[in-house]
User: What shape does this take?
Amino acid sequence: MTPRNTTDPGRNWRDIPQQMHPRAMSTEGRRRVTYSVLKTVGFVVVLAGVVWGGFEVAGTFRETPRKGSEAMQTSPVKDLVLVTDGVLDQAWMNHALALPKNTSLMALDLYQLRARLLASGQVRTATLTRSFPSTLAVSISERAPVARLSAQDKDDLPRTLLIARDGVVYEGVGYDAAMIQTLPWLAGVKLTRVGGTFQPIAGMESVAELLAKAKLEAEHLYNTWKVVSLGRLESDGEIEVSTKAATKITFGINEDFFRQLANLDAILDAAAAHPEKTLREINLAVGSQVPVAFADAAPASSGPAAGRPAVLVAPVPAPAAPASRPLVLPSFTIR
Assistant: This one.
């Protein structure tokens, strides 16, 4: 007997009513889902912020050069800084530069300002540097005087000028008065002025070398020197020095200055043993044979040794040389 199939072919097990419910999501699961969503949202927000910030920074960089340039163009100079190896001070620099009020650092013509500093003659070199936003730094190197002269224009009173080693003539500012008094006067030169500036005096290198050697090696002799004449420097290669005792000493630029100073010191020591005689001339320019002349009496108070020699700025005819007594034969010879 064949069993009867009672199953309805149109139905399957899915049609059977189920009594079970889907399992609910746990708290930990919901937390993980929430964290994942928040992390995604946060990443999107951060990314958007980075993109926005990039655009803002790029815009700032584009605007900064223009704004910075405008600020430098309009910011006035607030500080002037001076660095020097000499005696000039801040007040002198402020007066020499004469900067307009509220002028900006970028508007300054540094070449023109440098020319103003050099025009004094006392400044040998000058360097000007902009230090943003509002500082102008000035570094200068100054000349040092080796001699002085008294110059006089046709209608002006005499005035004291200083001469540097390179022959530059200038008025001089800031020097100690006592130091200036130790400088010898310069004579036998023609002082010319072109465009308001005195022309350098030729031959000052040799004179400066003699003065420096005397001050360093024989300061006791240097302190007695009053006038240094260049009248025979170009023609005969000789420098004439007049002392406070009215003795004329001739140095030769072709001879060693140290040897000449040693000879001079020996002669003065020997002459000191004869106070009844007054030295009138000593010629050190002729080599080891040094002619020495004595005077019978002290000379009159006249000539360059009596006071400061005046140098006329305008060219004038040279005065006639005064008559001089014949030289006395040398009293002794230094070998």
In short: The two ends are 171 Å apart (CA to CA). Residues 29-74 form one domain. The mean pLDDT is 82.
